[in-house]
Amino acid sequence: MSTEAPAAPDPGAPWPGPFVRYDLVKELVAALGVVALLAIVLTVLFSSPDDSPTTIQSWAQAAPSDFVATSVTELAGTSEIAEYGPPYNHTPDATQKIGPLDLQSAAGVRIPIDTATDFVLEPLRTIAGAPRLQLAIRAYESAPPALQETWTGAYEAGLERARYPRGEAIVLPAGHYGPVAPMMAALLGLAQSGGLDGNLLSEDRRFYQTDYTKPLLFLSGGEYFEERAEGQHLLGTQWGMMNETGSYPGQVWLWLYTFWYQVEPFLESPNADALVFALMGLLSLAFICIPFIPGLRGLPRHLRLYRVIWRDHYRDVEGGS
Amino acid sequence: MSGKGDGGVSAAERQMWTTWVRERAVSSLPPEKLLPDRQPSYVSSWIYVFGVATIAALVVVVVSGMVLGLGGPTWWHTDSLGRFFNGIHLWGVEIFFFAMVVHLWGKFFMGAWRGGRGRTWVTGAIVFLVAIGAAFTGYLSQQNFDSQWIASEGKDGLNSVGIGAFFNVANFGQMYTFHVILLPLAVVALVVWHVLLVRRHGVVPPYPARAAAAPAAVPPAEGGAQ
């Protein structure tokens, strides 16, 4: 039985063996042709996915009850975004941590969002020719927080028995909703007309807009948005980050990142995002530094798959053994 | 010619930055090393195809992306030609990552960092990670439901470690700039650096052959040019 050569040739020294002709440029041109042709064939056969985006208007029209239920939590300050913490707002104990390390708080509130003001009150103020609505807004804003909470709580309870005739209006059972009822009815009307989409983009009164933070955060609070994602197998529990709409391959290279969300301790951890990010950061660093990590850098020699890769070479030098 | 030393370069010329850069570049990578027409005999495996296929796919991705850029970010939603080039861009990216992952696994099993080639591995690994960022911002720039959902999900991971405060996935303008300028530039620059390192240090040789045949594997040293 043969053994490894005791004195390994220096892999950094010039190759002492024979050389063969090798046309690098021709190889690159040929590869370019093959890859371009393959991409064209795949495009002709499968094209690319393009599911139209959800708008505030399409949400309010398709699921008015979900829209109103979400909106009242934004007004009450009890929605997921209202209680998110940095970078959107200062909510105590809302941040994720890596052990004692709270990077989320350290970065600060750099994208301030006040859901009541930004998602509800400011858009309602732009509705012209509605003096009773403006009175309702002022009544809500001037009320003490406890009374505001009473109104929004009663309204949320009333929504469970609400009706939406033809999907265009809210009919609630009798209750003490205060100004919240006319405000929500007006917000639903504004959303269904398409006005709220533009309103959320242009609150800072600029003409050109490229920042969709406010409408996207508002949308993400509703069940409608999530149900649509679930139908496209995009949820986190469905390995969503690496999937694409339809049956197309998505970002499959994110499989390891997505994998951690499917297993304990990350699955149920309140710090799952931060912990997975930290773990992937460490693994990425190890991946980059493989040549300098004892044990790992020597692993390929023991795995011996190199003998498959260079089988022609070994057949030549070992005489076909 | 008076005042000229070896190589026809005067003392004054040697002090020029341009001369210094040229001489460093040529001595590090002489033309026959930069574009060799011969390779060691062991460079005859299917695995070598995937490195060049990765570069070819990158060219397809960059060119199709430039065409898409000419029409602007909404063009491909409304025009069949734009949709066609978006398809090439998408499938080019899928081929790019497939080829790069096979290339990386191949290089791992070959122990391709041996012989002072550590930086070659490091630059290749960083290309992979930066390319993931380039693709991620591309998915965010699609302006369809997929990009909405990816932004909605992706923000939580980035916010949890403080990155989201500076890199806002819901800010289309910021993501688009990263996707069409900053990250492609980084990927291309790193790929160029990686390829130059490969050319400078040569292709890693095989692990030693078995002892019984070792003499045949180590011919006289005169033939080396790498």
Keywords:
heterodimer; A: 321 residues; mainly alpha; 3 domains; elongated; disordered N terminus; B: 226 residues; Cytochrome Bc1 Complex, Chain C; 10 helices; 67% helix; disordered C terminus
Question: Concise description?
Answer:
By secondary structure, chain A is mainly alpha-helical.
Explain what you see.
Chain A is mostly helical. Chain A has 3 domains: 56-228, no CATH class; 232-288, no CATH class; 290-321, no CATH class. Chain A contains 16 helices and 1 strand. Chain A has helices spanning 24-46, 56-62, 64-76, 103-107, 115-125, 131-142, 145-159, 180-193, 195-201, 213-220, 223-231, 255-260, 272-288, 299-303, 306-309, 311-317; one strand at residues 19-21. In chain A, helix 3 runs antiparallel to helix 7 (145-159) and helix 6 crosses helix 8 (180-193). The termini of chain A are close together. Chain B is mostly helical and 226 residues long. Chain B has a domain at 47-204: Cytochrome Bc1 Complex, Chain C, CATH 1.20.810. Chain B has 10 helices and 1 strand.
